[in-house]
Design a protein that fits this description.
The complex is a heterodimer. By secondary structure, chain A is an all-alpha fold. Chain A contains 19 helices and 2 strands. Chain A has a two-stranded antiparallel sheet. Chain A is globular. In chain B, a hairpin with a 2-residue loop joins strand 4 and strand 5. Classes of the chains: A mainly alpha, B alpha/beta.
Amino acid sequence: MDNPTAGTEAASESEPSPAADSVDVDSGGAPEAALIAAAPDVLAGSLSEFVAAWWRRIRAGESGALPILAGLLVIIVIFQIQQPKFLSAGNIVNLLVQAAFFILLGLAEIYALLLSEIDLSVGFVGAVGAAIVAALISPPYNWPWWAGVIVGLAATAAIGALQGTLITRLHLPSFVVTLAGLLGWAGVLIFIFDSDKGAVGGVISISSNKVIYNLVNGNMSPVTSWILLVVLVGLFAFFSILKTVRRRSQGLAAPPLSITIATIILAAAAGVALVIVCNINRGVLVPLRGVPWVVPFVLAVVAAASLMLSRTRTGRYIYAIGGSPEAARRAGINVSRIRTIAFTLASFTAGLAGIVYMSRLGSISVGYDGGTYVLYAVAAAVIGGASLFGGRGKAVHALLGGVVIAAVYNGLALLGISTAGTEIATALVLLAAVSVDSLVRRRSASSRT
Amino acid sequence: MAEESAELDGVRAPLVQLRGVTKSFGAVQALTEVDLDIPAGRVTALVGDNGAGKSSLVKTISGLWEPDQGEILWHGKPVHLRGPKDAEDLGITTIYQDLALCDNLDIVQNMFLGHELLRRGSLDEPTMEIAARKTLTDLSVTTIRSIRQPVESLSGGQRQSVAVAKAVMSNAQLVIMDEPTAALGVAQTRMVLDLIKRLADGTVTVLMISHNLNDVFEVADQIAVLRLGRMVTVGAASDFDSQVVVDFMTTGRSDRTSANGDTHDGH
């Protein structure tokens, strides 16, 4: 050590020396500045450090998706014991297909929940979009499927923009505006069935349109399924490793490479399991195998929503407004514009959900129960981990919540339990999920003080 | 009053000068003919009893209110602040007591809120994280475990530090702080006061409102006392002691002699 001062500072860090005691070392000096860079939680050098940090987070109440995955496992085990058919290939595919609708509707609801608002209209808005598509692509209009879809989705987006504008410009509570939406769009839905000449007995069939019908009912060939899986896992692996390596090279916090690789392997294993199950012949009379097209479709929508929420200014501002509208306003964010965009996205995503619903049934009927479905949408979002109080939630939470809702729905139907029982059971699952969430949050809040 | 502030002018050119600023609401006279020079790169403390007009003055400088009469000079040139945006564009940032942070966002996200950097259309997190970390390190804010933790998990002093760092990051030349230590404990107060001193060491000018005279004497270079909407005295902090300031705050005058540090430990 040439520089005596540097020697003093270094010594005060490691061991107490006479020099360190006598010299008044500036407490805000250089040695402590290194703490930010070297915090173990952030820049975990090894696997064990990362696991330790992860465990600390869980104990502090930031458990992430863990409780919901545990809950899903419990639900699966219970149903499998009661009804061995639950985990058959045919039923798993059926469950995924049922989940697709709840996932998309839950995702629609998350846009509103993130703002600390609620959208009660997503159920019927989705059906209005689907009915417009159905009316346009069926006789007497016979539009090509894509033209119908464009008009249908544009209509749902316009509905969302209208509701968002009412909420932001007239300062009306979203609860009231979308409750009016729930009633009003239910009326519009009936109006569409009344005025469409193609509607027979309150039902518009779209099963003759192969593209729309096959979105849910069509399957990729087993070979295509495998190719798509390899491509998706490859892309995921490429981008996550790239991100980790790049962040490390810039000296930023990043999980150890082993964790990144473990995540990729886990994702690949889940994908392989899914493809294997879907490729088992589940047909009764004729062979039926392959991953339904709706599975990659839903994954693509959720991925797009994730990117939008985490990588764009609009997404960041949605979280900011959900956390503190006042802080967002003072930061120069156009709060009204962002809120309108979020409600537009909610209705647009509801339109996608409506199309998936219609595709599965091959038709859309006037008996569509949008009032119940919107409650499932809220349930899916909250069960998945989105907060009712705004600012917390991810697109992937809709995925988890939608699968849980579908599992309960599907399992109870398999056991032959009545509608009454199904609704009560779903309510109990929702209550349990929210209770766990609330308990975990309370613990995390108290551990801070 | 004007003579007293002129002494400081010799040391450093004022960043902001208020000349005869008057603001009234109907019969209520919030500010009357207020003159104040805020020297650049120094800490000016604005003190006064409740209702003395401290908040009114701050709102005028931060662009929330336009004065009825008088003018505001910025670097010696008259400016018209028609809104908080105008003040922000000049480089005036106000940190209110509620700090205006989003609890659910992490430190980096809060520091760049409204000014996010983009790279090929998506948020450039690495660059933002490096810049945020550099600003915090420059301010010697070292007690934060991870700059990727949500702001809600921070202590009061740490939150205050993030708010200050956010202001510094936006290239603020004047940072106005409203009761920065009001809600803090002893250790946290120390941390924030040290931060204010370091701010003024650099190129940033600080205008601080405070009730706590110990804090004021700890960090302020200049003290301005408001009473009933009038500026009763402005002078170098070393010319005052607590008792004199209290006299000015309560009666608008002081008969005590307290020349240059003779009664430095008066309180």
